[in-house]
Amino acid sequence: MIDETDRQVIRALQGDIPLVPCPYAALAETIGLSEAEFLDRMRRLKETGCLRRVGAVLQHRRAGFRANALCAWEVPAERVDDVGAAVSKEPAVSHCYDRETAPGWPFNFYAMLHAASHDECESIAARLASENHLAAPRMFYSVKEWKKASMKYYTR
Amino acid sequence: MLTEFDKKLLNAVQEDLPLESRPFAILAQRLDTDEGTLLTRLRALTEAGYLRRFGAFFQSETLGYRGTLVALQVAPASLPDVAAAVNRYPGVTHNYERTGRYNLWFTLQAPGDEARRQILGEIAALPGVEALMDLRSRKKYKVRVRFQL
Questions:
Q1: Do the Cβ atoms of A94 and B39 come within 8 Å?
Q2: ipTM of the complex
């Protein structure tokens, strides 16, 4: 179980990691913990699956990934885990989920694709469909980014 | 322009940063450079806008949050106002205008079903919102934003 100190550690980690030699010591100081205890807490959060990773996310357009498409498929329940595992292996896929459907909307399986161009997205989606014996997906291309932020947990 | 070293560095920082006192020194060693050089370059690349974020990523379900993907059909004239209203909710992390009948798609992390329903009720009532689909996640197979350079 996570306690109040863990929550403080999580809050301290929700901003950017400072680009200094001892970044965790700098963050620990903001909540009055020693570097050693802060790192212990982080390792425990990692072991218990609360912390996925520490690292960078690139600005994808700046890095040359100009097209992104949300692909939606109808995948039967008995196949969805296999398809999920296979589609997740594709490096161009950043997010992959099985989701509830909605009235008039039978699509339950979603993959977010990133590529240099619209055409490249189309060809990756076609390949994923054929490798997994699926129909062509519905594809929704981003037109404008209105918000992209990291989740803030335990806000007060 | 990115140098070959920059590309190696940008690929490396998309992996796990070690949970050790001097993580950048460890990273520098792997890339055959020193800590000072690596940090200087990383700061320059951050200033040049290559990094969206350098931080910790949590597993929202383990922290007690459940996520949903919401698709809205919005009258085009109302889109900027609806997008701005949606953005004001702290649990909204991604909000994109997309091609198709459902033209605004956002993700929402809420600390429970009641909180989610309350937020979505408010959004459905915004002027210009013609339809709303709440596509709650049943299973997460992958979340890994990684761009190989």
A1: no
A2: 0.84
